[in-house]
Amino acid sequence: EGGGKATETAVPGPDVCTMLPKEEADRLVPAAQVVKGSRDNESFKTFSCNWSNQRISYGEYWRSREIDVKVQQHLGQGAKTGRAMAQNSYEFDYGSAKFRETSKPKLRKDEKEYVSPVRDIPGVGDGAYAQYTWRRSGNLLWYSYGQAFARVHDMTIEVKYQASQQRKDAQILSNKTVQSITEENAIREVTGLIKHFAKGVADWQSKH
Questions:
Q1: How far is CA 192 from CA 105, 181, 186, in A?
Q2: What is the DSSP track for the chain?
Q3: How far apart are CA 77 and CA 108, in angstroms?
Q4: φ, ψ of residue 88 in degrees (nearest 5)
Q5: Once rounded to an integer, what is the mean pLDDT over residues 124-129?
Q6: Is the pLDDT of residue 2 over 60?
Q7: 153: nearest Cα among 126, 182, 177
Q8: DSSP 3-state of 183
Q9: Please, are residues 197 and 47 in contact by the beta-carbon 8 Å criterion?
Q10: Is the pLDDT of residue 24 over 80?
Q11: Which segment of 2-11, 22-31, 92-101, 151-160 scores lowest on mean pLDDT?
Q12: How confident is the model at residue 7 (pLDDT cuts 50, 70, 90)?
């Protein structure tokens, strides 16, 4: 997935990076590197934007922040409209999310995972929900993130926000002293984010 101008002309569609107000992007991911992408396949067109800064100095901590957004415009297939295909995709993702909140994946002894219940988000597009995932693996990995999904007519939107911090004097390649985003904060932030992108997509659709 290339960013920048090369792909911009390749697939005409919404510019996802402009849908998030700058002050909101700066608050969530200070001094972010922003990468835009687009690609095309037979079933849908994908427009993406990623805001990332993995090394933010904050007192005694290094902080890591990332927002990743994918907007997919679903194409009609046979007798099914793009809108119907988008609804199928959204319902499939929703079903997977509901399954994840109760399924118990096979974990190794040194792994832990928590997946929150699905939270429906009223009044956004034609349907929206959020979910939180926290995972720890051995002494190496420790991360958590919020995700939100929405459908607006023939487009589906997926937003992911990941945030953590670790003491600067921590061992390299160790998850000791890592603190990662809490469920409450992650759900709040992705709920706010999905509203911006659902509005941006609806605005784009009204002009095209």
A1: 30, 15, 10
A2: ---SHHHHTTS-S--GGGGS-HHHHHHHSTT-EEEEEEEE-SSEEEEEEEEEEEEEEETTEEEEEEEEEEEEEEPPBTTB-HHHHHHHHHHHHHHHHHHHHH------TTEEEEEPPPEE-TTSTT-EEEEEEEEEETTTEEEEEEEEEEEETTEEEEEEEEEEEEETTSPTT--TT-EE--HHHHHHHHHHHHHHHHHHHHHHHHH-
A3: 42
A4: -60, -45
A5: 98
A6: no
A7: 126
A8: helix
A9: no
A10: yes
A11: 2-11
A12: very low
Please give the biggest Cα pair distance in the chain. 60
Per-residue pLDDT at 5: 40
The whole-model pTM stands at 0.90
Task: Quote the tokens at residue 186.
Answer: 């992650």
**Helix ranges restricted to H, 110-179:** none
Is residue 14 a contact partner of residue 207, using CB atoms and an 8 Å limit? no
Q: Name the residue type at position 69.
A: V
Flag whether pLDDT at 119 surpasses 90.
yes
Q: What is the mean predicted confidence (pLDDT) over 164-184?
A: 87
